[in-house]
Design brief:
Its EC number is 3.1.2.2. Helices cover about 20% and strands about 40% of the residues. The protein has a single domain (about 5-140), classed as Thiol Ester Dehydrase, Chain A (Roll). The strands form two sheets. The chain has a six-stranded antiparallel β-sheet with strand order 1-2-6-7-8-5, covered by helices on one side. The protein has a two-stranded antiparallel ribbon with strand order 3-4. The longest helix has 23 residues, at about 55-80. It is α+β, with helices and mostly antiparallel strands. It has two helices and eight strands. It has helices spanning about 5-10, 55-80; strands at about 30-35, 35-40, 50, 55, 85-95, 105-115, 120-130, 130-140. It binds Palmitoyl-CoA.
Length: about 150
C-alpha cells in the first residue's frame, strides 16, 4: 500500500492530530483519492464522549488535520512544490449532525472548494457505516518565512 502523506513527507512531526512522532497523538493518515484526500480512523475508548460515541473535540481534530493536509497537498500539486506547502489552520467549523459511533472504522473525506494565493478553503465529511455524521469547512493558509510554524513540520 502507498505511504500516507504524513509518513512520506513529515515523519518526525509531533502534531497531536497528524504527527507520526507524537506517542500520544491520533496519528491520522491521509491518502489522495479522487479529487481530494481520504482518511480512515478507528477510535479508541479514551476518544469517546459517551459510551460508544466519539468526542466532538476529537472529531474537530480529525477534520482540522485532514483538511489541513488536503490544503497542503493541493498547493504542492498546484505550485509544483517538492513537498506539501506549510499550511496552518486559520479557521474551521464543524457541524455535528448525529452521534458518531466510536467502535468502528470511520471515513473522513476532504476536498478543496476554493483557492486563492496562499489561502485554501476545504470542505470535509465524516462517514460512519455509510452515513454522514458530521461536516466541516475551513480556511488554511500557507505560512511565509518568519512565521513560527515555518520549517517546523
Ligand atoms: C518537508 C516538508 C514537509 C511539509 C509538510 C507540510 C504539512 C502541512 C500540513 C500540516 C498539518 C498540521 C496541522 C496542524 C494544524 C494546526 O493545529 S495549525 C495551528 C493552529 N493555527 C494557528 O496557530 C494559526 C494562527 N494564525 C496565524 O498564524 C495567522 O493568522 C495566519 C493564519 C498564518 C494568517 O496570517 P498571515 O500569514 O499574516 O496571512 P494574512 O496575510 O493575514 O492572510 C492570508 C490570507 O488568509 C486569510 N485569512 C487569514 N486569517 C483568516 C481567518 N482567520 N479566517 C479566514 N481567512 C483568513 C486572509 O484574509 C488572506 O486572504 P487573501 O486576502 O489573501 O485572500
Amino acid at each position: 500500500m502507498e505511504q500516507a502523506l504524513q509518513d512520506k513527507f513529515a515523519p518526525e512531526t509531533r502534531c497531536f492530530g497528524c504527527g507520526p512522532s507524537n506517542p500520544k497523538g491520533l496519528h491520522i493518515k491521509s491518502f489522495p483519492e479522487g479529487d481530494g484526500l481520504v482518511c480512515r480512523f478507528t477510535p479508541e475508548e479514551h476518544h469517546e464522549g459517551f459510551p460508544g460515541f466519539l468526542n466532538g473535540g476529537i472529531i474537530g481534530t480529525l477534520f482540522d488535520c485532514h483538511m489541513n493536509w488536503t490544503a497542503a497537498y493541493f498547493l504542492m500539486k498546484r505550485d509544483n512544490l517538492p513537498s506539501p506547502a506549510p499550511t496552518v489552520t486559520a479557521e474551521f467549523s464543524v457541524q455535528l449532525l448525529k452521534p458518531t459511533p466510536s467502535r468502528q472504522e470511520l471515513l473522513i473525506r476532504a476536498r478543496v472548494v476554493e483557492a486563492q494565493g496562499r489561502r485554501v478553503k476545504v470542505e470535509g465529511e465524516l462517514v460512519a457505516s455509510g452515513e454522514v455524521t458530521a461536516r466541516a469547512s475551513g480556511t488554511f493558509v500557507a505560512v511565509k518565512q518568519g512565521h513560527p510554524a515555518w520549517g517546523r513540520w
